[in-house]
Amino acid sequence: MANWRTYFPIIRDRARPPEFNSLFLFVTSRCNSLCRTCFYFDKLNSKDDLTFDQIRRLSETAPPFRKLWISGGEPFLRPELAQILTMFVRNNGVCNINLPTNGLLPEKMFRALDAVLDACPDAAIDLNFSLDGLANTHDAIRGVPNNFVRTLETMRQAEQRYTGVKRLRRNVLTVITRENYHEIVKLGLHLLSDTNIDGQYFETVRGEAPDKTLKRMSEPDLKDLHRRLMPFHRAYAKKLFGHLPAGVRHVAEMYYLGNLRLHFDLHERCFEQPRKWPMACTAGQTTIVIDHNGKFRSCEMRPIIGDLARFDYDVRAALQSDTMRQEIDAIPRDNCWCTHSCFIQDSSKFSPRVQLFEIPWAWLRQRMDRLQSAPIEELERYKALELA
User: Fold this and answer.
1) Residue in 262, 332, 344 with CA at minimum distance from that of residue 22
2) For residues 19, 276, 131 and 228, what is the CA-based torsion angle, rounded to 10 degrees?
């Protein structure tokens, strides 16, 4: 029988003390969209992007870490994107790359992905296409005509090109807003039936978006929507872990669904006002955010606290600086609890309480919700009612 560690890398990954784990890098400020949900809108298309040599210096000075979160701008507008990703994998031991895209640049995307997959055979990539509603709604939110149709076509091409490449997960990320709230389930059904993606994930609109009306939702509305979205996560979990032996598959699905339900819980809890998480926020301890111009923060939702140019682009020096230590101390004092899933995820990894109690309890509650509210399988019920 295969060693249990083969099937449960999550145990090795999360049963450890807090340490530097994730780097968030805005590889470019250039963008070809006009998204009304973008918290980075006032910095886009600047003329002060980091040079390749400066980014290379970041990689050379950063401690080893596991997760590279890429942001922008549209990442595939960075000409050296493949070289940058490969460099962090080789220099820093990165195991997973989170790579968002609007899906409007298929040729640039495929060229970069092919190069990284070839150069980094042990690294996994989460390629996350942004879709924030059905055609008219998505195009209106993103500010690009025919964006929805073009992104779906890029997704179809990616499916044909990378089917069978297990270490490239093709996902969709959807931002929940007042404008798309009533059609997100329809979008989910469309993607589940007409595409072969590996998962769809849902975030609440966050930060200082240019269109503040998009945040006008209530906590009860969000709770109701989350209950209706959990069936999609269950469907994708079956696909994601279907190759595992039965007992192992059950535990893997439990942690996956419990983790996602916990994220939903914290989105709901902190949507209208900050409320304490069941674990400490580790922003600044296990993470650093580096903007397109070298300014750095502990979290995307926190203010800039320094400029890496003053540290000769030495990431380790910035992490160990008095500035960062003061920032870490300020986070709980500022009652800074948010809905940002990336930082919920990173912080929860280092909490035994969350791993041993909160996630299993969240998994149990989502099962209870299903039994109480859905006498038949939710997805079939949605299709029958057409969610008019």
Assistant:
1) 344
2) 120
CATH of 19-385, one of 3.20.20.70, 2.30.22.10, 3.40.718.10, 3.40.50.300: 3.20.20.70
| Residue from 37, 29, 31, 33 nearest 144 by CA | 33
Give the pairing of strands 168-176 and 199-204. Answer: parallel
Question: Which of these ranges, 42-51, 210-219, 224-233, 309-318, has the smallest mean pLDDT?
Answer: 210-219
Is the model's pTM score more than 0.85? yes
Nearest-CA neighbor of 28 among 77, 62, 83?
77
Digit-coded pLDDT (tens) for 22-76: 999 999 999 999 998 888 888 999 999 999 999 999 999 999 999 999 999 999 9
pLDDT tens-digit series, residues 233-258? 999 999 999 999 999 999 999 999 99
* DSSP one-letter code for 63: P
> Are the C-beta atoms of residues 80 and 52 closer than 8 Å to each other?
yes
Residue 210 binned pLDDT confidence (cut-offs 50, 70, 90): confident
Maximum Cα interatomic distance, the chain, rounded to a whole number of Å: 61
- Residue 182 is which amino acid? H
CA–CA distance, 300 with 290 (Å, rounded to integer): 9
Q: Tokens 């980014």 label which residue?
A: 55
Structure tokens at 177: 């807003």
Domain residue spans of the chain? 19-385
* Residues 288 and 24: beta-carbon distance below 8 Å: yes
Q: Which residues contact 135 (CB under 8 A, 6 or more apart)?
A: 148, 149
Burial of 218 (0-12, 13-18, 19+ CB in 10 A): exposed
Specify the residue for token string 């007992």.
Answer: 247
What are the Cα distances from residue 11, in Å, to 16, 191, 236, 255, 364? Answer: 9, 31, 21, 11, 20
* Residue % of the chain over a pLDDT of 90: 82
Please say whether the dihedral angle defined by the alpha carbons of residues 231, 233, 234 and 240, taken in this order, is positive or negative.
positive
Q: Which phi and psi (to 5°) does residue 170 adopt?
A: -100, 110
Q: With a cut of 70, say whether residue 5 has pLDDT above it.
A: no
